Amino acid sequence: MRGALDLGTSLLYAQVKKANSDHKVEPESNLLRSKHFHVGKPVYLGNVAIRLISQLSQPDTPFFVQPPSFNEQVWQLTCKSSSISISVDSSSYWGAGLFNSGYLNRIEITGPLQERARIIFDLVATLSHNPWEFSHLRSARKMLHKESISLEGNEKSWRNLMQVASSNMEERIAVLAERTNKVDKRVTMNKNKKGFDHKMSNASLQSAIHDLEVARAAHADDNSPAVERALARVEASLINADPSSQIESDEQLLQDELPDGHILPIDDDENVDIVDLSESEEDAEVLTEKDVIIAGMSQIIEEE
């Protein structure tokens, strides 16, 4: 599975269930606009394309390589977001394009595997149907056969990407669970240590344990945003609970309070002469020209 996915691009076909005229295409730029834009031809994006674009992080405005013409649901657009780029081709495959159930989307997504997998995972989670399940199997089979893709192969491509994203979340949960166990042991070992706030650390540790369970439940529901939020809370709680973090902070605080340089110890019995080498500008003597001449003559007499 991994070898095929590591090619850098995934090709997927999706069944479109619903489409509304909520968008327009700006004539001069071919960019996607809302239906309230003052000019433009209506375009029916469909539920799959809308949800797919919404999964991208700060995407560019979608550009229509092929704007809609007579049929507002036949088009091709591209969109980029950081290291991810997508191309969506909407076309009719059954019923001469008279019904929403007769349209499919050809999705080509390019970028790092983990990011592709996460986007597809979230897309499927937000849809009310499995996108690889077509309303008209015979027509869909013929359509996909043009690119030498079977219905079973298309479903496998979807599921493989979803499995990559799911495995990545499981791994992150397992890593934080192991880290939680280690922090738990350190909290127990330092329970009676002077200066260690065991009550606060234990409360933070319990919060981390609770949020780990929240993350597991969210993963079971295929809710990756909830998993991310829960794991972020786990990391923050573990930082507060970890005794090593408190000890390092206390040691750094003590270090900051120490003065720079060296301290010279002096016994009370020792007599130390203190010489003030500082001299203000007001106390400094200003030599006149007469003083300079007298000083020069004195030096000559001493030399003779």
General description of the model:
The chain is an alpha+beta fold and 304 residues long. It has two domains: 148 residues, no CATH class; 91 residues. Helix content is 48%, strand content 14%. Strands 1-8-7-6-5 form a five-stranded antiparallel β-sheet. Strand 5 and strand 6 form a beta hairpin. The N and C termini lie far apart (105 Å). About 2% of the residues have low confidence.
Task: Describe, in short, the structure shown.
The protein is 48% helix and 14% strand. The chain contains nine helices and eight strands. The radius of gyration is 36 Å and the shape is elongated.
Which secondary-structure class do the elements indicate? alpha+beta
Order of helices and strands: HEEEEHEEEEHHHHHHH
Helix coverage percent: 40-55%
Biggest beta sheet attributes:
5 strands, antiparallel
Low-confidence stretches: 249-254
What's the total number of strands? 8
The overall number of domains is: 2
pLDDT averaged residue by residue: 84
Backbone shape = elongated
**Strand order, largest beta sheet:** 1-8-7-6-5
Cα Rg: 36 Å
Beta-strand percent range:
5-15%
Alpha carbon gap, first and last residue: 105 Å
Number of helices: 9
Can you lay out the helices and strands and say which pair or pack?
Blueprint: H1 2-5, E1 9-15, E2 23-25, E3 32-34, E4 41-43, H2 47-54, E5 63-66, E6 75-81, E7 84-92, E8 103-110, H3 113-126, H4 137-145, H5 151-189, H6 198-220, H7 224-241, H8 243-257, H9 289-303
Antiparallel strand pairs: 1-8, 2-3, 2-4, 5-6, 6-7, 7-8
Q: Which features would summarize this protein structure in a list?
A:
14% strand; 5-stranded antiparallel sheet; 304 residues; 2 domains; alpha+beta
